[in-house]
Design a protein that fits this description.
The protein has 206 residues and is of the alpha+beta class. It has helices at residues 2-26, 45-56, 94-115, 178-205; strands spanning 71-76, 81-88, 135-142, 154-158. Helix 2 packs across helix 3 (94-115).
Length: 206
């Protein structure tokens, strides 16, 4: 009887052990995200461009940005270079251009870091991991000045890993705000019309 009781207890223990194992397997939760660095990641640049537009266009903090076409870039993955051309509204001053460019650079890096965890995110003292690997040529220009470099507000090279501060282009000529240009044109047209009317009145009086 004692042996039989021992056998029954042993079988019961095995059954309980089997049930426990089955429950553990059946209760597995959702898969955890993979956070470690992956090899061969190709950045989705259209997605990065869309994120940049969403962040900076029609944003009250960056009124100098155009509604579209303000952020343009070209990336050469073989040469590890990026050309970043920012187009701002007429009347933007050098300080505003620098602030806009600084924000765009850091945001671009952080979007790259979101896709590839091997890139460190930007900080107060660093543009981030992407710009530790890529040399950058940065230009900030008012609209309609592509061929008129004297109006460019920023035109500089930032070597990879240097975190070199953005500085205004020396001797840049500031453009007038678009609204002021339109007002000046309207005023010139009004003055021309008044001059014609005065001439006509003088001729008639004679």
């Amino acid at each position: 009887m004692k042996n039989k009781a021992l056998i029954i207890c042993a079988m019961t223990a095995l059954m309980l052990s089997g049930c426990t194992k089955s429950n553990i397997l059946a209760s597995g939760g959702p898969a955890e995200p993979v956070l470690e660095t992956q090899q061969g990641i190709v950045l989705d640049w259209p997605q990065i461009g869309s994120a940049l537009d969403d962040e900076f266009l029609n944003n009250e903090e960056y009124p100098m940005a155009l509604e579209e076409g303000s952020i343009n870039y070209s990336v050469d993955q073989n040469e590890k270079t990026i050309e970043l051309n920012l187009v701002v509204k007429s009347g933007t001053n050098a300080e505003e251009a620098v602030r806009f460019a600084d924000a765009v650079i850091r945001y671009l890096n952080d979007e790259a870091a979101t896709q590839d965890f091997s890139y460190e995110r930007s900080s107060d003292t660093s543009y981030g991991g992407f710009f530790k690997e890529y040399d950058m040529h940065l230009i900030v220009m008012p609209e309609y000045t592509m061929e008129q470099k004297q109006y460019w507000l920023v035109d500089m090279d930032i070597p990879k890993g240097s975190d070199e501060k953005i500085v205004p282009k020396e001797g840049a000529v500031l453009t007038e705000p678009e609204s002021e240009v339109e007002e000046d044109e309207d005023q010139a047209e009004d003055e021309a019309e008044e001059s014609v009317e005065e001439t006509e009145e003088t001729t008639t009086a004679k």
